[in-house]
Design a protein that fits this description.
The structure is a single chain. 44% of the residues lie in helices and 14% in strands. By secondary structure, the protein is of the alpha/beta class. A 7-stranded parallel sheet has the order 3-2-1-6-4-7-5, with helices on both faces. The mean pLDDT is 89.
């Protein structure tokens, strides 16, 4: 109840239009699909993927930093990263393995994308109903690491009919996410966020939208304590 009261209080500091937009966006957000980026060294490409995730309603993006540290490119994301939950894996010598372990513990299937010769399923034939899944994307130059490929649960490819074997990572992510999110929303799968998740994100977004939100929150909590 306290969380809902705080949300109601902070909403008085944003426009009615912004509050309505939060609810609209939250109604389309999903954690049924998540994205995992492995060691992307060109920040504009990874930033373009973040923007794509926001546009298609993917809430969580996971970033593996083995050799390369990722920094958001604000000219590419256009602020989209502000509304996403970004998890970084950079604390061990095996960050890819740690990311896979963490996502599996959360119930995700690990799906390596790209042409790997590992019995890939074509994008248009991918089965959404088998459970939550994490789409793993690698670098343009080298693709996914051997570990990322060998330890994946499934493999997904985009059908292509030219001489070139692969798309740019940001293009690949956009094509895959467009197809899968469109099909997901037309399905009978329970893909939406829980009410609790919506409240948590709405409060987080309000705090990011309101100036001096931490001071306002303290004022609100102090006021409650005096009653």
């Amino acid at each position: 109840m306290g969380q809902q009261e705080l949300i109601k209080y902070l909403q008085t500091f944003v426009t009615g239009r912004r509050a309505v937009l939060f609810d609209k966006v939250l109604s389309k957000r999903t954690r049924y699909i998540t994205v995992l980026l492995e060691d992307i060294y060109q920040p504009h490409n990874a930033s373009a993927v973040l923007r794509t995730c926001d546009c298609f309603g993917i809430q969580d993006v996971n970033i593996i930093e083995n050799r390369n540290i990722y920094e958001v490119n604000p000219d590419v994301t256009l602020g989209s990263d502000k509304w996403l939950t970004i998890n970084k894996f950079n604390k061990t010598t095996d960050n890819t393995g740690e990311a896979y372990k963490t996502l599996r513990q959360k119930g995700y299937r690990i799906v390596a994308t790209g042409p790997h010769g590992n019995e890939e399923v074509s994008l248009n034939e991918y089965d959404l109903k088998k459970g939550k899944f994490a789409l793993v994307f690698g670098t343009e130059m080298h693709g996914l690491s051997n570990m990322a490929v060998n330890e994946a649960d499934e493999y997904l490819k985009i059908p292509m009919f030219g001489f070139t074997e692969s798309f740019n990572i940001s293009v690949s992510a956009a094509i895959i996410l467009y197809d899968l999110t469109c099909r997901l929303r037309k399905s009978d799968i329970s893909w939406q966020l829980t009410d609790h998740e919506k409240l948590e994100l709405k409060l987080e977004w309000l705090k990011k939208s309101v100036r001096k939100a931490d001071c306002l929150e303290k004022k609100f909590l102090d006021g409650k304590d005096r009653h």
